[in-house]
Every structure is written in C-alpha cells, then in structure tokens.
C-alpha cells in the first residue's frame, strides 16, 4: 500500500513526495502543499474525514479522497 | 476636485484587510475571522496629507490569482480589466506576518501585473510572541517593493502606509522575478502570437476556470500558430509555476525572516485538541448552541418586558393627552402598537448577532466547518454550509451570500435552496408570542422551561428540514461538478470588542429599520382598512348592537360594538373571503390577514395582529393579553390553543415568506427558476403540515 497523507496517524510527520495526480486542486498547492514540504496530521474528524493538517506552517483541512492522492514519506 | 488615488486592498483571507480598511477610512463594516467572510467589495475614502484623498476598496480574500470560487473571481475581474472604473492606481497587498510565506505567493502574482504594489505586513503585535524577526530593507530589495509593517489591532504603522500610498508613483512596477521561465518554448510562442499583451495576463486568461465577460478565450484559439493546451497539460504548467514561485519565496525568506521556535508559544494546539475532539468537539458545539438559545429566550425576557410595558404606557399617554379624533386613533391604535411589535425584539436579535459575530471573530467557526463536513456531505452539503445555516438563524439574506465560498456548484445551490428553512430572526417574534400563549410557563428540572425547549425544538426543526430537503435535492438534482474542499483553520483570536460591537449594532439597526418601514406602512394601511367599512352595517354598529342586547352593561356593549365594527370593516370582508382557506388550519380571519401580510416579511405578523386587535379597544393592555382573550367563534374556546398554536408555529417554520430572500436567491443563482421553486414548494409544504397537525391535535 502506498503511504499517503490519508494513511498518516495523528501526530505523525512526513515529507510530501512528488505531486503527480491531476485531481489535486491547484489551490492546495498554492496553500503550501508542495513536494519536499513537511506535513503533520493534527487531528481527524470522525471516520477520518476531513483531516486537519499542518503543511509547511499552513493549517488547513482537506477531505480524505484528496489526502489519499498525496504521496508522502514518513520522517 | 483633485483626482483620488484608487487603492485596492488585496490579500489572503483573514490577513486583516477589513481591519486595515476600517483604520484607513473610519468607515465601518463587518470584520470576521471566518476565511472568506467579506464577499462583496466595500469602498471608503481616506484623507492623506495636503488635501490628497485615496479611494480605498476592500476586496474579498483570495489565495491566488487562479480563482476557484466566486468571491475570488471578483479580484481577478477587477485586476485584469485595465479600463474598468475601479482599476487601481496602487495595489496594497495585505499579509499576515505569521503566514508570510503563503501570503507572498499572491504578492508575486500581483507584481507580475504591472501595477504599483505595496506590501503590508500586518499583525506585527504577534511577532514577539511567535519569535519572528524580519529584515525589512532586505525584503524590500528582494521583493522590489515598499513594505509597511503594521498592527491593525493596535493601530500602529498606519501613517507610514498612508505616506507610501501618497507617493505611489515612485513605486516599482517590475515583477519580482521571471515566474514563467520554466517553459520558455511554450510561453515564447504565446508571447509571439500576441506581442502587444502582457504575458502573465494572457496566461491568466487561458487558465481561468471561471468565465470572463470581457476576455474571450475564443479569440485566442483563432490564432493559427498557437494552440491552447489540454486541461491537464495546463494544470501541469500551473503546478510548475506555483512550485517556481515558492522556490523564489523560500530563498527570499531564508535571508529575510527568522523564527525562533523556542520563543514561540501558542494556544492553538491546546485549544484544538479540545475543540476539534471527536467527542468533546461536538459536545461543546451543542453546548454553545444551547447557551445561545437560552440567552435569546430567558435572558432577554427582562428588557423585553420593560419595552412591552413602555409601549403600552406610551399608547395610553398619547391617548389621554391628545384630543381624540381619527388621527390620534391612527397613532395610538395603528402606529404605536405596530412599532412596539418590532422594537420588543431588539434584545433577542442583538443577542443572536452578538453570538454569531463572536464565533466568527474568534476563529471557532472554521472548527465547526471541520467537525461538520462529514455529516453534511451525507446530505449533499459541505462543511462550509454550516456557516450559512448558522448565520441563517440571524437572517437568510447574508446567509445566502455566505455560500459564495463553497467551491462546488451543486453543494452551493443546495445550500442556497435550503437556507430559508433555518429559523431566522424574523420568525422569532412570531414564535415567541405564540409560544407564550399556548405553551405553559413551567420549568422541568432547574434551568430549562417548556417554553425555551419549544423554541429550541423549532430551531432544530428548521435545521432538520433544511438538512432533510438537502438530502432530497441531492438525489433529485442532476448536476455534475468538481468536488473538492479545502479550508484554512485560522489561529484563535480574542474577538476585538470594537469589531463585535459595530457588527451587532449595524445588523440590529438594519433589521429594525428595514422591518420598521414595512411594518409602519402595513400597520397604517391595516388601520385604515379596519377603521372604515363599505356599507351601513359598519356605520350603524352601535344602534344594531344596542337593540340586540339591551340588557348588557356598558363595557360589554362597547366590546360587542367594536368587534361588530371590525367584522363589517373593509378588512373584515377581506378576511372573511380568505377564511375558508385558513379555517381548516384552525385560524380565524384575523390570523389569515396576518399571514397574508407576512408574505412581504414574516415579522409583520405580530404588528398586524397588534393593529387589528387594538382597533377600538380602550384598555391599556399588551398585545399578548389581547390575543389570549380572543375567542374561537366555532368552538367557543380560546382562539389560540395548543392545536391552532402549534399549527401556526409550523406554518411559519416552513413557509417562504420573505421577498428579500427571494430577490437575493434570484441574484445568486441568476435565474427566477430557483426562487420560484422555493416559494411554491415551501408554501404548499407549510400549508399541508399545518393542516395535518391541526386536524390531529384539535
Ligand atoms: N493580533 C492581531 N489581529 C488582527 C490584526 N488585524 C486584524 N486582526 C484580526 O484578524 C482577523 C481577521 O481580520 P479581517 O480584517 O476580517 O481580515 P480580512 O482580511 O478582511 O478577512 P476576509 O475578509 O475574510 O478575507 C480578525 O479576528 C481581526 O480581529 C492585527 O494587527 N493583530
Ligand atoms: Mg474582509
């Protein structure tokens, strides 16, 4: 199974790998979700969705489908 | 008159644009901590030195020039239309010192547009606590701009900003760097095809999802040696561009910004642990809602009683101190009770707006969006629909406008369609008076009374119906649209007292004066209709009644005469005509008139009844007492009993009785189809439910 933001556990940090999918909205990239940046899962709502993240100092929440498209490497 | 300098305030959501705007212009407007709260442009004038003036425009927050929602679109249309009358002489990009990296993305894009640009770094008061220090001269040099470091909260640095605006002609217009250098071949060909256009503007027009009125993509594809790429290729290029911009920003900030992590302290993590918790998060949200309803119902009853008595007293004093005549009757029987019917609800409406603006200012609203997204999606809504639904408890009009930041058109449309079901402030007067008539004033346990529980039930009913019909609409409507959801979670802030106070006062004032005008007009019309009759039955009331009941005391006679007159007045005939329609719901013709006039605006109902009931009555009684004394002609029992009361409550809960809402829905959906559907379906549904409930309970 691929490691993505959706598979992170609470409090885990990871580095974003290359962004390949077209599904990922540009807005997310603009908010700092870029290859090489650090992401930390701060909190999830029930059923793991949405996910509350700290990406490169930006605090934001995204839905799980999108999170599952962003590959990461746990650090 | 000298020309004004046109200034646009641009920046990411929540960076303090509106706060800066308030400081510059002194013109006040809503300031909220929910990202994207300012959905319309706001304008004001700022005096600079030596009689020079600046025309300031506050724009909605946007993360970049690549618009993905309607409110972001406003900014791009403005900046791309060089001939537009609002096209700025100088762009002031407002950024938040804590999120400088992200905020600078938009800044580098604006710099590519060939507009003189000032960078405002706001929230300077937070630097010490966050351990941030900046090298301003270095940043100015690297970013090719002038920087004003300010704190809108403390009011510091504003004079420096004004000076920069004044000398805007000396600002640099060159881009920070070449952001489109990653695909020289493609952009080279684009520039060659349109040699006299700015490359970045061309690129923006090509990549926008939103439709531009003034710029036509069609024109571009005609050119033979240049082809627009496929959507996914374009997207790839946009991603590369964004990465490129961040590389530049990172390099600049590496030199110009230092953060001492050890000095940083923050409440955010601790608060979030509780407020977004899987159990406690929802528990606290529910508790906050409960608190709001308790405040609206119980706490505000004290000032309300005072207002009620004051108006009864005013009516009485006017009556005794002025010579009697039709004009004085109009004042004491028409206008004063009509206005009293609305003024009495000021405490409740103020409480409601107070809570909503505190929730927005503090940053809590975004947490609610986070908590509710999953639940709301089940019903075809978005977590962001919670904000419209909650502000719908104040008024549906701002609520419909607050849907603009929902990215997905279907989720947005459904939200707009169901928002009018939430219990708006205008329903409150109707609910309160009927609840106090038909629900016993007793307490269960210590705190909660039956009456406030009924009110709370009605609020939940409104929410429930909204959500239920959303679910239905989600199945029925076949609209395909891209779905994604990103929400920023802003840091927690202690609400600025001034912002909250201004908001509460302005909203309450708008509500009271807006409703006041309609109510005044309607109560005068009603009074005239109730004080004159078309035929002899009205004029000869006294003789007829005295002959019929010779044995009655004078007081009883007067009452009989008054009601006889009302029955044969113009309004009596009109009411009689509609009575067959409303009788199955348990209402008499007076309530029928109230309902008809409510289609202009719901809150008119109480004023209408107040006017109808006070015509011809001499005692200085309150509206409520008069309504309680009303008798059902068929059953002989009180007109307002449990069955008719509940039926009326439910009718008002479901019916679409607000012209302003219909108008705003037309504007936001750009078609009459949706508001008409709302009007018809909601009204039929309301009638049906009220009918069934009355027939069961009676
Ligand atoms: N600490 C601090 N807080 C500030 C300052 N300026 C504004 N705020 C707060 O930041 C929040 C957002 O301010 P707004 O002025 O509404 O921001 P905006 O950019 O207009 O936001 P949108 O219209 O939603 O894009 C509010 O809670 C303000 O009280 C400041 O200088 N210091
Ligand atoms: Mg604003």
UniProtKB/TrEMBL annotation, chain A:
The keyword GTP-binding does not apply. InterPro entries: Fe-transptr_FeoA-like (IPR007167), FeoA (IPR052713), FeoA_core_dom (IPR038157), Transcriptional_repressor_C (IPR008988). It comes from the Bacteria. GO terms for molecular function: transition metal ion binding. Keywords: Iron. Residues 3-74 form the Ferrous iron transporter FeoA-like domain. Coiled coil: none annotated. The keyword Cell cycle does not apply. Pfam families: FeoA. This is Iron transporter. It comes from Aquimarina atlantica.
């Amino acid at each position: 199974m691929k490691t993505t933001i959706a598979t992170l556990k609470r409090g885990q940090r990871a580095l974003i790998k290359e962004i390949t999918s077209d599904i990922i909205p540009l807005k997310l990239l603009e908010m700092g979700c870029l290859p090489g940046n650090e992401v930390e899962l701060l909190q999830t709502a029930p059923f793991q969705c949405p996910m509350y993240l700290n990406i490169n100092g930006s605090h934001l929440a995204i839905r799980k489908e999108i999170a599952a498209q962003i590959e990461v490497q746990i650090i | 008159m000298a020309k004004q300098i046109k200034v646009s305030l641009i920046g990411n959501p929540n960076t303090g644009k509106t706060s800066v705007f308030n400081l510059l212009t002194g013109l006040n407007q809503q300031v909220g901590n929910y990202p994207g709260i300012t959905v319309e442009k706001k304008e004001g004038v700022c005096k600079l030195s030596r009689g020079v003036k600046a025309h300031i425009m506050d724009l909605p927050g946007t993360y970049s020039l690549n618009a993905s929602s309607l409110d972001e679109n406003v900014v791009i249309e403005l900046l791309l239309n060089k001939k537009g009358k609002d096209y700025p002489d100088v762009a002031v990009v407002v950024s938040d010192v804590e999120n400088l990296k992200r905020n600078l993305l938009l800044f580098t894009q604006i710099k590519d547009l060939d507009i003189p640009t000032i960078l405002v770094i706001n929230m300077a008061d937070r630097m010490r606590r966050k351990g941030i220090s900046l090298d301003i001269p270095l940043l100015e040099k690297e970013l090719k701009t002038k920087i004003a470091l300010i704190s809108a909260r403390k009011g510091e640095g504003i004079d420096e900003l004004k000076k920069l605006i004044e000398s805007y002609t000396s600002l640099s217009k060159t881009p920070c760097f070449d952001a489109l250098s990653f695909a020289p071949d493609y952009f080279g060909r684009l520039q060659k095809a349109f040699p006299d256009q700015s490359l970045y503007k061309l690129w923006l027009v090509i990549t926008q999802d939103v439709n531009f009125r003034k710029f036509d993509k069609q024109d571009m594809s005609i050119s033979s040696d240049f082809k627009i790429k496929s959507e996914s290729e374009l997207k790839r290029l946009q991603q590369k561009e964004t990465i490129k911009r961040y590389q530049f920003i990172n390099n600049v900030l590496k030199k110009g910004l230092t953060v001492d992590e050890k000095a940083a302290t923050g409440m955010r993590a601790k608060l979030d642990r509780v407020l977004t918790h899987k159990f406690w998060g929802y528990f606290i949200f529910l508790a906050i809602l409960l608190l709001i309803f308790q405040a609206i119902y119980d706490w505000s009853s004290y000032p309300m009683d005072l207002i009620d008595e004051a108006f009864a007293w005013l009516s009485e004093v006017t009556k005794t101190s002025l010579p009697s005549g039709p004009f004085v009757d109009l004042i004491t029987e028409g206008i004063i009770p009509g206005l009293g019917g609305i003024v009495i609800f000021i405490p409740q409406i103020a409480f409601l707006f107070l809570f909503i603006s505190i929730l927005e200012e503090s940053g809590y609203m975004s947490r609610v969006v986070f908590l509710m997204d999953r639940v709301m999606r089940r019903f075809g809504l978005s977590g962001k629909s919670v904000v419209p639904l909650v502000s719908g408890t104040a008024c549906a009009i701002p609520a419909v406008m607050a849907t603009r930041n929902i990215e997905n058109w279907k989720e947005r449309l459904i939200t707009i369609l169901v928002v009018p079901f939430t219990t708006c402030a205008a329903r409150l007067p109707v609910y309160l008076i009927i609840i106090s008539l038909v629900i016993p004033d007793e307490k269960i346990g210590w705190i909660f009374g039956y009456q406030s529980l009924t009110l709370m039930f009605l609020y939940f009913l409104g929410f429930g119906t909204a959500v239920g019909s959303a679910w239905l609409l989600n199945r029925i409507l076949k609209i395909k649209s891209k779905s994604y959801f990103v929400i920023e979670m802003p840091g927690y802030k202690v609400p600025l007292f001034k912002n909250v106070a201004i908001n509460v006062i302005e909203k309450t004032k708008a509500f009271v004066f807006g409703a006041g005008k309609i109510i005044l007009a309607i109560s005068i019309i009603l009074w005239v209709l109730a004080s004159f009759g078309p035929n002899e039955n009205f004029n000869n009331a006294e003789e007829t009644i005295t002959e019929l009941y010779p044995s009655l005391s004078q007081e009883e006679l007067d009452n009989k005469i008054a009601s006889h007159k009302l029955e044969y007045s113009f309004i009596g005939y009109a009411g009689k005509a509609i009575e067959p329609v409303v009788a199955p719901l348990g209402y008499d013709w007076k309530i029928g008139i109230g309902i008809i006039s409510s289609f202009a605006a719901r809150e008119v109902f109480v004023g209408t009844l107040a006017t109808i009931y006070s015509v011809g009555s001499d005692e200085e009684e309150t509206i409520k007492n008069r309504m309680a004394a009303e008798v059902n002609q068929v059953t002989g029992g009180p007109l307002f009993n449990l069955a008719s009361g509940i039926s009326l409550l439910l009718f008002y809960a479901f019916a679409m009785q607000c012209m302003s809402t219909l108008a705003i829905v037309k504007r936001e959906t750009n078609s009459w189809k949706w508001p008409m559907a709302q009007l018809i379906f909601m009204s039929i549904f309301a009638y049906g439910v009220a009918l069934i409930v009355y027939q069961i309970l009676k």
